[in-house]
Amino acid sequence: MRLTDTSRVIRESVPAEVVEIAALVTELGNPSLLMFVLAVVFWLRPSRRRETALVVSYAIAGLAVLLTLETLLSMPRPPEELFRIPQDPDDYGFPSGHAFAAAVVYGGLFSAFVVGRDRSLARNRGQTALAGIGASLLIALVSLSRVVLGVHYLGDVIVGAGLGIAFVLVMKYATAGDPRRGFAIGLVLAIPAVAVTGGTPNAVLALGGSIGGLFGSSRLSVLPDLRSRLEGALLVAIGGSVVGALTALEAVVAAFAPAVVVLYAVVVCWILFAPAIVGRLGSEVLEGATRLSP
């Protein structure tokens, strides 16, 4: 089922010189990077905030599902001697979290932006096909990189990517395009994930993120548009810095699970509310500059 022999052939056919490239490619499936990508898209594409928030809900709900599955199956990674990059040998290996996350986020963006109810981006068939090829290529490259790096078997990534795509299809139907439903589903899924995993940091993240998203997504319609590219750059700089600072606090409060839940609820709320907060700050700066000018 895990295709260990085929995995060995793939791993051994890739020269050591390519491993560094594979290590870079695999970061495209890193959940932290994917969440930052979604945050930037949310901040810089005001007309598509509802769709982006929807994909954020997919990612958080999907994390809860993945953690539950990995824990229940308890199938280990390949032996540590096969690793070509540093990796925690105690992490579960089936299904692949990177492949699943890549499928949920890149597949979710394709589903929400290109083939969703709003077909403004899907009128050109060539554009739609190109977007689909791009999303598929990203998912395939991330999945293959995990095998090349020796941290997963081929079967792990095939199942992970397949489950991710299936999860997007289920969530698309279940949410009917409403991110509040997505975060509500994430909250329901996060509760058993916390129970099954014993309250691991990622499970608590899913719980807190769902709560924050459920609260924050109720105010999407009142968020301001971007007034300039400069404001967009300011939003990414300030928004990203705050997310980084808040995330770093996890090490301080990690021993107290309720505090971690609150922390990640605040992180997701910040991502969703940052356009309003930074937009107001930008207005005050511009008004102050105007008053000071002769």
UniProtKB/TrEMBL annotation:
A family per Pfam: PAP2
Start and end residues of each Phosphatidic acid phosphatase type 2/haloperoxidase domain: 52-172
Keywords: Membrane, Transmembrane, Transmembrane helix
TM region(s), chain numbering: 21-44, 56-76, 96-116, 128-145, 151-170, 182-198, 234-256, 262-282
Alphabetized SMART domains for the sequence: acidPPc
PANTHER family per the UniProt record, alphabetical: AT30094P, SPHINGOSINE-1-PHOSPHATE PHOSPHOHYDROLASE
Record-given protein name: Phosphatase PAP2 family protein
